[in-house]
User: Fold GMC family oxidoreductase from Oceanobacillus longus.
Amino acid sequence: MATKLPKTDAVIIGVGWAGGIISSELTKAGLKVVGIERGGDRKTEDYFMMHDELRYAQRHGMMQDLSKETVTFRNNEGMRALPMRRYGSFLLGDGVGGAGVHWNGQNFRFLPYDFEIRSKTIEKYGEGKIPKDMTIQDWGITYDEIEPYYDTYEKMAGISGEDNPLGGHRSNPFPTPPMKKSVNMKLFEEAAKKLGLNPYVQPSANLSEDYTNPDGISRVACQYCGFCERFGCEYGAKADPIVTVLPVAKETGNFELRAHSYVTRILHDGNGKATGVLYTDLNTGEEFEQPADIVVLTSYVFNNVRLLLLSELGKVYNPADGTGSIGKNYAYQIRKGKATGFFDDKKFNMFAGAGGLGILVDDYNGDNFDHTDLDFIHGGMIIHQQTGQRPIANNPVPSGTPSWGEEFKDASIKYTNATLTVSGEGASMAFKDHYLDLDPTYKDSFGDPLIRLTYDFKEQDRKLAKYLAERCEEILIEMGADHVDTMQELEPYDVAVYQSTHNTGGVIMGADPETSAVNNYSQMWDVENLFVVGASSFPQNAGYNPTGTVGALSYRAAEGIVEYLKNGGGRLVQGKKERQSV
Assistant:
């Protein structure tokens, strides 16, 4: 029998970026908030001895324990899904701060096109441009409507950057200047300009200078140590929930964190209202019921979908007829369209770097180029990054080099600091047969079904990746590379090969409850006091990293929750809402 606890105003499931932002905003508004996190608590001191590539980058020391809970995967419905037993394609965070602790800090705003992709594509190219099995849809919110929330998020995190010449308008400049340009970044910039492109320094959550945000949180500048991705930042220079929003929530006295606590169900009355959550204390095995006026689901994409399915909330997606929305429109990121250049007479210091250090062009992103004669839609950014090439994982040699022996060793030494990669980060479109559901066979340590992922690359992805790879090659040749290896063909999707942790969809946002799960405040259509926030709400993925958009949606959801309680409940109004940027 679960122990029933006193009721609170709001319970947050998952204390990462989304959960931390919403906890901060609700507690500042005077609401009592309980944050439930299945992993342990963290503080900056925990990162002081974290420059251990083997433990954290190779053995995934900060990630979820796959022996207790994992994902099952299949490429199509004709295959039997099998559990992912070791990390490969993506990394699942664990603990307070979630993936917001071990991310690189690469931070972007989506393009205006991304939010209205279906209507804008049809308007320009006709409905025939969209394949019949492609299920992309507009978000139910425009760039202009979400822009103020991007602004608020960037000021909180202290995002460093410069204007994207092909991006949406900005109501304010970046709060901190762009990061330093390395020699190789300048080489990319010069080459891109010679090709008639529009390069700009990557927006970064690694601070370019000391910064104090509007909440009074002060942080120091990045040291360019190269230990960002898969590591926590011991300086606090990389924005993460631990050093930004969670201290604000705790300072109010209205926030209670319950770490090592695993939510197994969202409780509800069956009449469109959530009543709280059921969770287990992982230290003692005790089960508790936490009642709340508001439930906010802010865990990772897979768990957001899984918890709704286990709790029997929302309409389950049916790929056979396209009805339902929970599990619908899973999308990923097309990261294989790239080229690597080898230089005989140039050397670069690639060990130094930062997670968000890079330079890119958006000339081939979104609909910034004409697709009339192309057999794919959208595109992706083309970027050269200097994230820090740690020695264990980096040993590039040109194609044709033997894989062992004296010649291999000589080439390894020669090109250790003479290799540059230019990558395309392509958008991932949603398709009817790409979805998430509960696995009928495999279960977690609590005896509940695991989430099952059905996904493979489509012809859309192959054409897009090939196109971006060719553009990457052109830039490297202009940069003076003596040998360039370019991706020739996108292989079938393999969950065992790392690509990115940019999983999206499954609880998608839209203007129509028949085709989406949440409205543009992240409020569930079917359960008015349940808000589901995160990349799970993306109807498809853009040609950028998702975190900046997750942050913006989190601020909008927090505003909606406060308004919902102030109004005594009800459905939040769709469409544009006037809001002054902070």
The two ends are 46 Å apart (CA to CA). The CA atoms of residues 141 and 520 lie 6 Å apart.
